[in-house]
Amino acid sequence: MFFKGLTSSIIDMLQTIVLAVSIFMVSYLFLVQPHQVKGPSMLPNFNDGEYLLTEKVSYRLGEPKRGDVIIFEAPQNKRDDYIKRIIGLPGETVSVSSGKVYVNGKLLQESYLPADFKTQPGAFLTENLQYKIPDGQYFVLGDNRSHSLDSRALGPIKKKTIVGRAWLVYWPMNLTGFVPKVVYAGM
């Protein structure tokens, strides 16, 4: 009797462990994934060392939007992920002129940045170049333009490299909250 009860308890415990691991794996692979912000490229909105949850569902059901903060595979090393903000969508033109970003010839109003922030051109997107974003690709910039390796140097990113959308900051606890959605006036 003792061994029968012990065996039953062990089987129950194993079933619980297998169920918990299965739920975790499904969630991790298809729903949400933790990421850490590394470096200053998203200051002042995301700090080095912050942890956030990336949701992976919305881009399976719809398209990325301008202003979304996304996580994507780094072009140079697929094992690393970058966090940047979508500025330009497929088919649009993007340019940098006199420290400002323009989309389809209109000044991009970036309320999430300090007014004195300047956007310098890069090796890919040079000053006053009107670049048309190809289908299935997105133009991304870090919020801290002077310390960000982004589409100005690397070119646009492909949708298939996008891991998901930054959804929730969960560490440190004093910064816990949902990542705010950005709406661009006139775009």
Summarize the topology.
Elements: H1 2-31, E1 32-36, E2 51-55, H2 58-61, E3 69-73, E4 81-88, E5 93-97, E6 100-103, E7 106-107, E8 131-132, E9 137-141, H3 151-154, E10 157-158, E11 162-171, E12 177-178
Antiparallel strand pairs: 1-2, 2-11, 3-4, 3-11, 4-9, 5-6, 5-8, 6-7, 9-10, 11-12
Outline the structure in words.
- There is one protein chain.
- The protein is an alpha+beta fold.
- The protein has 3 helices and 12 strands; from the N terminus they run H-E-E-H-E-E-E-E-E-E-E-H-E-E-E.
- The longest helix is centred in the first third of the chain and has 30 residues.
- It is elongated and about 80 Å long.
- The N and C termini lie far apart (73 Å).
- The mean pLDDT is 87.
- InterPro entries: LexA/Signal_pep-like_sf, Pept_S26A_signal_pept_1, Pept_S26A_signal_pept_1_CS, Pept_S26A_signal_pept_1_Lys-AS, Peptidase_S26.
Name the features.
Umud Fragment, subunit A; about 190 residues; alpha+beta; membrane; four-stranded antiparallel sheet; Signal peptidase I; elongated; about 30% strand; single chain; hydrolase
Order of helices and strands: HEEHEEEEEEEHEEE
**Overall strand count:** 12
Shape: elongated
Query: Number of helix segments?
Result: 3
**Which structural class matches the secondary elements?**
alpha+beta
EC number: 3.4.21.89
Main location: membrane
Catalytic activity: Cleavage of hydrophobic, N-terminal signal or leader sequences from secreted and periplasmic proteins
GO molecular function: serine-type endopeptidase activity; signal peptidase activity
